[in-house]
Amino acid sequence: MKSESKVAVLLCTYNGSKFIRKQLDSIVNQIHLNWVIYASDDGSTDETLDILKEYQTRLGEDRVFILEGPRRGFAWNFISLLNVVHDDTVYYAFSDQDDVWLDDKLQRAVLMLDALDHEIPALYCGRTMLVDEHDQCIGYSPLFSKKPSFRNALIQSIAGGNTMMMNNVAKDLIIKTPRWEEIVSHDWWIYIVITGCGGNVIYDPNPTIKYRQHSDNLIGSNISMLARMKRIRGVLDGKFQLWIQKNISLLALTDIKLTSDNEMLIKQFNDARCAGLIKRVCLFRKIKMYRQTYFGSVAFALAILFKKV
Asked: Which residues pair with 9 in a beta bridge?
């Protein structure tokens, strides 16, 4: 089974010359052939732009577009690209500069999204294979089994942006994000918006990308015990609470329509966050928000107890 749906690959770059050829080659070698690369460079001073131009010359200017990034951080580099893609695009896939895609990455996402109602916002995301600088597998991102939902999205991001693909209705929601407002993380924000507006989220348990872990990437994996302890410390020092407040504040500024149930959930969530200990615990038990893992659930329970949500 094949699909001819056109995919815009939104590639954001910044001093990525060390690994970007491998990522570009993995895009070129996709089973799904109908793709166009939109590369937004945020001010590279290495050979990144030369490499992009080399691939543009080889593949054609109709397959590789090179743009100047907004220089407002990686989140806005990705989101700003959604505004420049050609109108005949069906799906939008985010790409980091230093990963490697398995050859069925686009095909799996396209076929799953094709099966859904195109009038409803839809987002594909999934698990990743973690690799070192030499492409050796060092593990996998956590496998999540609970259903994606707004109750989960408000307190957890379940997938990296480098796994995400969305349809046009979802894209139209995301581009309503108020320009240059601070975004904690573009992948978390997208998960919140799509679920909040009643969209469909597909979480693929089968890894389709090799997610490179190295000293230069902005956001690495969170599977080690040290990373888990850091997350719990982040709860206790208020970082988790600050992130949640920034997401909620941005939701209030964004011209989108949440479902009636999710509008009520936001109100209940804010009431619970502000309540005294006993009432706070009772209210959170009532609204049944959840994280996907055991350690995440422990961290959230601590956040509730210490009023750090």
From this structure: 37, 93
Cα–Cα distance between 40 and 85 in angstroms, integer? 12
Assign residue 133 a region: left if phi > 0, alpha if psi is -120 to 50, beta otherwise?
Answer: alpha
Of all residues in the chain, the percent with pLDDT exceeding 70 is: 94
CA dist 73 → 13, 163, 177, 184 (Å): 11, 19, 15, 11
Alpha-carbon gap, residue 71 to 73, rounded angstroms: 6
Torsion angle of the four alpha carbons 14, 18, 19, 20, in this order, in degrees rounded to the nearest 10: 50
- Assign 227 a pLDDT band (cuts: 50, 70, 90): low
pTM (two decimals): 0.94
Joined tokens for residue 165? 């693909």
Contact between 124 and 161 (Cβ < 8 Å): no
Q: State whether the Cα torsion 51-84-256-259 is positive or negative.
A: negative
Cβ pair 37, 63 in contact under 8 A: yes
| Residue in the block written with tokens 């056109």 | 6
HSE on the CB side for 269, CA within 13 Å?
Answer: 22
91-95 and 165-167 strand pairing: antiparallel
Looking at residue 3, its pLDDT comes to 80
| Closest alpha carbon to 285 in 304, 306, 308, 266 | 304
* Cα–Cα distance for residue pair 266/210, rounded to 1 Å: 35
Buried b (16+ CB within 10 A) or exposed e, 229-260: eebbebbeeeebbebbeebeebbeebeeebee
| Alpha-carbon dihedral sign for residues 274, 280, 283, 287 | positive
**Res. 221: pLDDT tops 60:** no
Q: Say how many C-beta atoms besides its own lie within 10 A of residue 279's C-beta.
A: 12
